[in-house]
Amino acid sequence: MKNDSTSRHKVISYAKYGYFFILPFFLTYAFFMIYPLIYTFILSLQGNGKKLGEFVGFDNYRALLFGGSDSLGLHQEAFWSSMGRTLILWAGNFVVQIILSLLLAVWFSDSRIKVKGAGFFKVAMYMPNIITAASVASMMVMLFAGQKDNAINSMLLNLGIIGEPFDFISDEWASRIIVMFVQSWMWYGNTMLLLMSGIFGIDTSIYEAASIDGSSGMHTFINITMPILKPIFIYVFITSMIGGLQMFDIPYLFHTGADYKPHLETAAVYIFRNFRGSGNILGRNHGLAAAASMILFVITVALGIFIFKFNSESTGIKKRKKKG
Q1: Separation between Cα atoms, residue 297 and residue 242, nearest integer Å
Q2: How far does the chain reach from its first CA to its final CA, in angstroms?
Q3: In the 8-state DSSP scheme, what is residue 9?
């Protein structure tokens, strides 16, 4: 005979209610990410200028990837040149950022070094990361723009370091170094904290065993710390690459007014200029800008997958060798 009290109490599953809590994320993601991506692809199949709204198929992609004899084909060199400048600016700031972040992370996490006020320095180094890039770029423009009326030229002239004002923004490599410096300064604090979290997660017994075996500090760092931090390095590299390929605000704000600086035109700036129709052959190149955005998206995804697969395969090979 069944127990009446047991039959009255049914098992209630609350698992389904979890979907209601995560639903807002998926709706927001679909509205702000998936829909714009689909709309951009549709726009990339349309014409430019007076042909805006007309279906032209993959003509915009053909023009950007393979060029052509028409005016639209002239954009192939401009687009790939902007991609080259983007990679130069990203590589320059990433190398400086990762070296500085690694040195500081090792310094702050070394138990033998007692840094007074370490907490304050960590917060101070992370602070540039929470400042908007547009604010930092505006500040740098005020410091370096122009030849006579900027603060840096005035300081250098007063110190006798230079004999006449120098146009930092118009100079190709001076302006690029400034952009690289700003990018490195803004992001090295975030990278430093990520690397520190990885270092603190390493079992201290590993370092103790290495010390007993007579391993030097540099040998321990290269053969123990660096391999264990590899997943974090891969994460930092991929996220930095994605942000670098989409670099826009800092290079764009260095284009003061109508003064166009081709040496600072990144892929994102190129896309924006074509979308706005600033000094273009065909006016507002909405289709061309959308096609360039899709190509940039595909390149970013392909590079991210390649780096992730390369890391996974190299880790798998090492594991198989150890088992063998």
Answers
A1: 9
A2: 61
A3: S
**What one-letter code names the amino acid at 6?**
T
Block residue for tokens 């639209």: 72
Q: How far apart are CA 324 and CA 301, in angstroms?
A: 34
Please report the pLDDT score of residue 313 as a whole number.
Answer: 61
- Locus of tokens 């007309």: 54
Given a contact cutoff of 8 angstroms between Cβ atoms, the answer to whether 82 and 288 are in contact is: no
**What pTM value is reported for the model?**
0.81
Residue from 208, 5, 198, 3 nearest 102 by CA:
198
247 DSSP assignment:
-
Residues near 282 by Cβ (< 8 Å), separated by ≥ 6? 48, 49, 71, 72, 288
Q: What is the mean pLDDT of residues 255-266?
A: 73
**What pLDDT sits at residue 177?**
92
Provide the strand spans (E) within the chain: none
